[in-house]
Amino acid sequence: MQELFGKLADGTRIHRWSLENGGTRMKVLSYGGIVQSLEVPDRQGRYANVTLGFTRIEDYVDASPYFGALIGRYGNRIGKGAFTLDGSAYQLSVDDGENSLHGGEAGFDTVVWDVEPFERGTDVGLHLSYTSPDGEMGYPGTLTAKVTYTLTADGDWRIDYEATTDKPTVVNLTHHAYWNLAGEGSGTIGDHELAIPAAHFTPTDPGLIPTGELAPVAGTPFDFREPKRIGRDLRAGHPQLLAAKGYDHNWVLDKGITAEPQEVAVLRDPSSGRTLRIASTEPGLQFYSGNFLDGTLVGPAGRAYRQGDALCLETQHYPDSPNHENFPSTVLRPGQTYRSTTVHSFPT
Ligand code: BGC
């Protein structure tokens, strides 16, 4: 089902699609490819929206910290918004202190995507496409991006990303859902249990740019190899947690880049019994514990979002890869196709 959701200041009409399959319900906006809500049942079969969002387009445009949005051309930060490729230096739009975050001032979370619904066998979904002009936000090459959201008969939400370019460029697409499995507006995620199969993470400088080191998680608050309450070590006073106001780091997934999606995180809320299992082809996972939510935004339930009221689990290549030769490459060249897949399952 498609309906008018609202209009941008310039009159552009923003539509909203509602999808349902296998017990999962979601609403998607053409603006930013935003997943406005995603509803799944708890152990008693009661539905709740487990993602943060807004009810009005104006709030997404004015104040959204990427709630539910597609992120491009580059998920997370590029130091000083600068990199060199094939001997040419590029300066990107800088929107986070001196750094470029999530594609710059007007990233893929702020553009209007073309949206085409589809049904294929037992799947339902949406094809989203956007062509980013050569030089947009400082990135070289015309980037043709195609993202498919699929809801499967099992209630999985699958994202397939694809992109091509007409000049050498860098690309790192992801999705910025904020999860609270007890329901948006229900309080903190401190008691959610999280597992991440990663023996290393990428420590950052004070501007949250990776230093280049792959540090072992063993013996640190960053060890999520066994399921752990998020709140357990959050206040441990580790210098990396102090600098980021919590978790806001890239985990180096043990599995690396894979042809098929493999498990990268399991999140469980003991109170509701809801579980989110994420599998991806990507080599990295940004776990962000909602550190910058400051009680100034109000969600659909009419409740303010405060620090730690949700978390993000963003599948990705590592932040600032264009400036680190030891990180998996994010370079895309003409004739190549960028591909990435992430699957969210909600076993009960
Ligand atoms: C980043 C955070 C940032 C947030 C946006 C995350 O992916 O790692 O540092 O504040 O997105 O709200």
Task: List the topology elements.
Blueprint: E1 2-7, E2 13-21, E3 24-29, E4 35-41, E5 47-49, H1 57-63, E6 69-71, E7 77-78, E8 82-85, E9 88-91, E10 100-101, E11 114-120, E12 123-132, E13 143-151, E14 157-165, E15 169-170, E16 174-176, E17 193-195, E18 200-202, E19 215-216, E20 228-229, H2 239-244, E21 248-252, E22 262-268, E23 275-280, E24 284-288, E25 297-298, E26 304-305, E27 312-316, E28 331-332, E29 338-345
Antiparallel strand pairs: 1-2, 2-3, 3-4, 4-5, 6-16, 7-10, 8-9, 11-12, 12-13, 13-14, 14-29, 15-28, 17-20, 17-22, 18-19, 18-21, 21-24, 22-23, 23-29, 24-27, 25-26
Bound molecules: beta-D-glucopyranose.
Beta-D-glucopyranose (BGC) is lined by residues 65-66, 76, 208, 248, 286, 288, 292, 312, 314.
Give a quick set of tags describing it.
single chain; 348 residues; mainly beta; nine-stranded antiparallel β-sheet; five-stranded antiparallel β-sheet; 2 helices; 29 strands; globular; binds beta-D-glucopyranose
